[in-house]
Amino acid sequence: MDGETEVTVIGAGLAGAEAAWQLARRGVRVALREMRPLRTTPAHVTGDFAELVCSNSLHADDPANAAGLLKAEMERLGSLIIAAARAAAVPAGGALAVDRARFSAAVTERLLGHPLVSVCRAEAVSIPPGPVVIATGPLTSEAMAAAIRELTGREALYFFDAAAPIITLESVDQSRAFWASRYGRGGRDYLNCPMDEEEYQRFHAALLTAQTAEVHGFERHMVFEGCMPVEVMAGRGQRTLAFGPLKPVGLIDPRTGRQPFAVVQLRKENLAGTLLNLVGFQTHLRRGEQERVFRLIPGLEKAEFVRYGVMHRNTFIRGPAVLNLDFSAKARPDVFFAGQITGVEGYVESAASGLMTALALLARRRGRPVFAFPAETALGGLAAHVTASPSADYQPMNVNFGLLPPDNRKKRGKKEKKLALATRSLAALDDFILDCALNEGDPEQPCLPTQL
Questions:
Q1: Please, are residues 278 and 164 in contact by the beta-carbon 8 Å criterion?
Q2: In the chain, what are the domain boundaries?
Q3: Is the pLDDT of residue 40 over 80?
């Protein structure tokens, strides 16, 4: 494949940005198409690539956690998204969280500066000649959604996604809060607002009666479990929040020396630490109701909101029904899909999908067999869910160890089992990369494209 070959990538979110980078760094000329800022979405506010709209956290960074393992695998393959995230990281205990403005700016700068990437700021209303990667994300425009439905012959699916509000640090009464991470891991990375039982019950009752914003054109019950609005969670039981995002386990209030009844955690949104995200507080409450209810949290009585929580539509295709194992469309194999529109859920998962799609496209162009990562890897497990899930009710999925084949060797506990799975996964990926490099000249072998 030479530098004159052009691949069109539609969408410069996490998946599209990663796919464009992986193609360009291997000598492929890429036409990257992004409709923002000329046409925006209900969730985006900038025209930068890889803008984070729900949270600034890329979740756990320890390979003993599935999200951390996926990051480790992506780093072995030269991921732009993970490299940019590390450069823009903010303290977040055992998680990888970023200053979202610096992160998106870095991704944008790298792609705009690459000589093989040309950027077109315009909405794609149809699917162009291939090869093409569709990475339009969960907020795909109506015109492109219609083109995708025409291509796949099936109706797209919809679900709701919600984003948490952001407040200023200076508006928090820190005399009523304390800085700490659970079990002391990671230092003073979270600002914790403790609640006694009476305060928690008052807050819970207010959530149940708060008014939500109107949702036009979609069914109210279609809520993705992985990003559930806090008011929906509250409606599932009085103690649901206390055992979920408000669980106090691993936190001791220094004022009392005891574990609180419940804790609301605030995480830094930027490197300066002047902005804080209400962890787990995705919501669809009206703006005025967000102020009224969330100011019942101890320490947030005078909270200044710089971004309110929002709910917006997410769109994804029935991956197992319409995609081949290499993320190409069964109806048109020169069209590849990447990112949340395939049914992966999460920032890192979306970027991983873009990475895998780019490598699969390269392998296809070089006449190789279907490109697939080993089933033992997080990448392979995620790809198998998207393209081959046997479920009759296909739903978006975050990466998790349940997607990997079990390790039947005897282990002492859950932590040891996860470490063993992570060790096995990274070893399998390293062997796969080595085998691909050694088999570069053999057309009968699946080959990882060069210039890793």
A1: yes
A2: 6-156+317-438, 163-313
A3: no
